[in-house]
């Protein structure tokens, strides 16, 4: 915390201490990160209120508003607090679907985005594959690659999480056929047939995903998304396999044997599908924690087994860290907890990185010819500059450690709440996973609405899960406010 206290108030960093609310480690003092952040949520109208309702009506005439959660006033939002158009101020533990890393209106990010470097990249946006700026290598090395997962020293940059996933799948297929050709050139039959979307130029290959997985909504990624039917209905898809993801029983300490057996069953299923599917499986894609599908966890033993299995079968392993990456689990990358002997073949990222892409280490995953992985933008230097500033902010304030410590405190307090409301807080999960915590509750959607009336923007996943996705600047005093609001909602719902 000492480093935090040295930063000037001009940049919006508070230098005063904050005492936790009475009853929850009241003796502990911390230094909040924002000097202008509210001390409490404030709800003065219904949500949506009258101003928001009129604005939503106008918006609906030109834009689909059926998935709208809040109509926000971002100019008045700060730190962990999100403002709506009616002046309501909510503690935000959903953070734009887990994508805001260091707080609303973070002053240091504002400085980075106001720099000549960022403005030049914004107004002269380069087609990176053809006309990259001279500083592109330096920017990658000091930003995106500075936090690359161990063993993965190259990157393909992209626009969004689904884009990162799609291009990683392409890399897996290209690699598979390159290995099968053993260096031979394309045949005339391949060149001719591919223009008709036929074999051998368009081969039958597959990506395996897991039941309840979510990997995006574009055409290739959608074929590996299994979280909700509404994502996939009416959309043609590839005939690709899915395996069971472990469905663990909680509390973990009381179900060690059953959970170990469940994970072994799932690994055996993966191996069986790889061996029996009607076409070769080029890669297995997996989330460290299945997020959209209900916040489903597995042990490091499962993931170690999955890595060993994919290597033994000659199948690539793609780890989808779009939601779990960039510090959310108390590690910069969630898969760091697995203690793998060899790294994954590719790791995708987006959301809190504010840019996107996939990391890789094997040079053979770079296509053998130009234009095989290509589009006009191939990412965005402005977003790469922003991610570099985010990385610097995370390092400056040791925010990964903050997330781990805050998560530990929050989880222990939630355990106490679960004892008090056993029918309302079920299957509490996310211990030692930073603030990446979830639990199941009956009447989940009604519970989420109730939390808004109490000044907390919180999200759900799957059918019954309440998921916490706070920012990396979420601290123990924010956690205490959240806990108080949770208790009020649990009493009232």
Give me a quick take on this structure.
With 493 residues, the protein is an alpha/beta fold. The chain has helices at residues 2-5, 50-60, 95-98, 107-113, 116-123, 136-142, 161-181, 188-194, 219-222, 256-276, 300-313, 381-397, 399-420, 444-453, 476-492; strands at 18-19, 29-30, 81-83, 89-92, 154-158, 206-210, 242-243, 281-286, 316-320, 346-349, 356-360, 426-429, 438-440, 456-457, 459-461, 465-467.
Question: Keywords, please?
Answer:
four-stranded antiparallel β-sheet, Aspartate Aminotransferase, domain 2, seven-stranded mixed β-sheet, 4-aminobutyrate:2-oxoglutarate transaminase activity, 15 helices, EC 2.6.1.19, 493 residues, disordered N terminus, pyridoxal phosphate binding, aminotransferase, globular, pyridoxal phosphate, alpha/beta
Q: Characterize the biggest β-sheet.
A: 7 strands, mixed
Would you tell me the overall average pLDDT? 94
Instruction: Pick out the low-confidence regions.
Output: 1-22
- What's the end-to-end separation, in Å? 38 Å
CATH superfamily label of the domain at 126-379: Type I PLP-dependent aspartate aminotransferase-like (Major domain)
Helix share of residues? 25-40%
CATH class of the domain at 126-379: Alpha Beta
Query: At the third CATH level, what is the topology name of the domain at 126-379?
Result: Aspartate Aminotransferase, domain 2
- Number of DSSP strand runs: 16
Fraction of residues in β-strands: 5-15%
Overall shape? globular
Which architecture name of the domain at 126-379 does CATH use? 3-Layer(aba) Sandwich
Strand-pairing-aware structural class: alpha/beta
Please give the order of strands in the largest beta sheet. 5-11-10-9-8-6-7
Rg computed from alpha carbons, rounded to a whole number of angstroms = 23 Å
What's the tally of helices?
15
């Amino acid at each position: 915390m000492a480093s935090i206290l040295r930063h000037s108030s001009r940049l919006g960093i508070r230098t005063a201490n904050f005492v936790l609310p009475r009853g929850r480690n009241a003796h502990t003092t911390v230094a909040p990160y924002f000097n202008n952040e509210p001390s409490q949520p404030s709800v003065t109208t219904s949500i949506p209120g009258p101003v928001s309702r009129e604005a939503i009506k106008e918006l609906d005439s030109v834009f689909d508003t059926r998935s709208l959660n809040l109509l926000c006033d971002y100019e008045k939002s700060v730190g962990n607090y999100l403002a709506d158009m009616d002046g309501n101020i909510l503690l935000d533990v959903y953070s734009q679907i887990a994508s805001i890393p260091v707080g609303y209106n973070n002053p240091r990010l504002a400085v980075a985005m106001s720099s000549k470097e960022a403005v030049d990249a914004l107004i002269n946006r380069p087609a990176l594959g053809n006309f990259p700026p001279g500083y592109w290598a330096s920017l990658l090395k000091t930003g995106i690659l500075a936090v690359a997962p161990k063993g993965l020293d190259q990157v393909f940059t992209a626009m969004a999480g689904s884009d990162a996933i799609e291009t990683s799948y392409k890399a897996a297929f290209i690699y598979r056929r390159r290995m099968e050709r053993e260096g031979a050139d394309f045949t005339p039959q391949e060149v001719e047939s591919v223009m008709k979307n036929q074999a051998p130029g368009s081969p039958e290959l597959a990506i395996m995903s897991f039941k309840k997985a979510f990997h995006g909504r574009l055409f290739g990624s959608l074929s590996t998304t299994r979280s909700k039917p509404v994502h996939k209905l009416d959309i043609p898809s590839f005939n690709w396999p899915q395996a069971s993801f472990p469905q663990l029983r909680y509390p973990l300490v009381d179900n060690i044997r059953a959970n170990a057996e469940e994970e072994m069953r799932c690994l055996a299923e993966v191996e069986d599908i790889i061996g029996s599917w009607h076409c070769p499986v080029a890669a297995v894609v997996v989330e460290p924690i299945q997020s959209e599908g209900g916040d489903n966890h597995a042990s490091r033993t499962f993931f170690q087994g999955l890595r060993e299995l994919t290597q033994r079968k000659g199948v690539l392993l793609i780890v989808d860290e779009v939601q779990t990456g960039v510090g959310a689990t108390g590690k910069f990358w969630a898969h760091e907890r697995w203690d793998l002997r060899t790294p994954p073949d590719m790791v995708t990222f987006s959301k809190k990185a504010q840019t996107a892409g996939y990391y890789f280490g094997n040079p053979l995953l770079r296509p053998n010819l130009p234009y095989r992985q290509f589009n006009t933008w191939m990412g965005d230097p402005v977003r790469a500059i922003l991610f570099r500033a985010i990385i610097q902010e995370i390092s400056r304030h040791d925010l990964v450690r903050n997330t781990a410590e805050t998560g530990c405190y929050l989880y222990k307090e939630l355990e106490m709440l679960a004892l008090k409301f056993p029918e309302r807080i079920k299957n509490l999960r996310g211990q030692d996973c930073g603030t990446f915590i979830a639990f199941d509750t009956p009447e989940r959607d009604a519970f989420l609405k109730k939390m808004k009336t109490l000044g907390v923007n919180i999200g759900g996943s799957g059918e019954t899960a309440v998921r916490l996705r706070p920012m990396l600047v979420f601290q123990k005093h924010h956690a205490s406010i959240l806990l108080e609001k949770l208790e009020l909602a649990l009493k009232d719902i």
